[in-house]
Structure formats: structure tokens, C-alpha cells
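Continuing the batch. This is chain 6 of the set; chains 1 through 5 are on the previous pages. Same settings as before, nothing changed between runs. Recording input and output for traceability.
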Amino acid sequence: MSSVAGIITVRWLSLGWFVRRAITMQCNHCLTAFHPSENIHILGEDADGGWAVATVRCPECEKFNIYLLRCNIQQGEVRQILESRAVRPKAASRPAPPTEVPPEFADDYKEACLVLSDSPKASAAVSRRCLQHVLREKAGVKHSDLAQEIQEALDSGHLPSHLAESLDAIRNIGNFAAHPIKSKSTREVVPVEPGEAEWNLEVLEALFDFFFVQPARLRKKRDALNKKLSDVGKPPMK
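Output for chain 6:
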């Protein structure tokens, strides 16, 4: 077992986990993007492997983003990140849903983000339920299992192609054919594929934009134009 080392400054490119987060990162507190410089504090090793804590201070809000890392440690240095978990703040680094999104959808989305780092399985269960709710209420699909509801939304032709492709990918990434319970019992906490929970959230964000944000912005622009037309004595847009 290696001894506890001091604070070690490591370049982001030297760590696989940080590479996946890209050269810039987003602060989990204020969501500001910046070029990070992190400190790694090696805790040591136990039966589960090596452990370390990574701290990154945001230059905007000056708060620490702290991650617990399970890693390979060789000669007193972190060689590979095997697993990471945000411990401060615990919420996933995703923006809050736009104000145009009603609470009945936004609350489930925020809960799915909150538990993502602790349990991707739980996050995916909540996001699947939210996705089904959006499709039923906004896409007008008939109540069925999630896989069939996705297909009905695709067949309607009402979704732009890029959004339709992203929605369809949920079934493929989630391997619904091998795990039909994901579509038939959307609230069940079941094993997830790598990246599945995150992709559910990505698609939900796109659906929120399509069904809530864009229509609200168009209404505001139309109302503003109608006011101008009214001021000069012309009829409003129909």
C-alpha cells in the first residue's frame, strides 16, 4: 500500500477522466466555462484500489469543485482514473431547465441530474419517466410502453430530423431489446449502458427546447410585432 502523498498538480491531458471532460470544464456551481488547473490529493489504496481527491477552483465564483476518484496509483502518482464522483456540489454540471419548462417536467429533470453522479441507474429511471411524460403531453402519443411511444413520435413526422434521430438513439443506447423493462416499466431502477443516463438528459434538454422554449420565444416576438402593428393602426398577425 502506497503512503499518503501531498497535493500534486497534474495537467489535465495526463488523466483519462479529465480528457473526457475536455480541455475546458464547466463549474458545477455557477456553470461558467473555464480552462481548469486541478490539484490531486492522493489518499492511498485499499481493497478497492487507489483513491484520490481532485479539487478545481472556479475563477468566476471562486468555489471548489471537488471529485472523489478511484484510480490506479503508481510510484506516488495517479496514472489512470477508473471512476469519478462529484462530491461538491453533488448536482451534475448541467444548467437548470429553462423557465419556460413547467414544473411537472422540470422537477423530474432536476432530480435526474441531482442523482446522476451517485446512481446513473436511478437517474435513468427518472429521466425515462420524464421523457414518457413529455411525449404523452406534448407529442400526443397514445399511452403505451416507452419504446412504442418513441416510435409513434417518430412516425408522426412532427419532430425535426436531428431531434428524431436523438430520440431514436435512446432505444439503441439503452438496449431496450435486451432490457424491455426499461420501456414497459419506466420507473424501474435497472442496469444502464455506459452513457445512457447522460444521453437521456441530453434528449430531454432538446425536447424542452423544441416543445417549450422555442414556442414561447416565438409568442413573445409575435406579441411584440402585434403591438407595433396596433400602434400604427394595423391589424395584428393571424
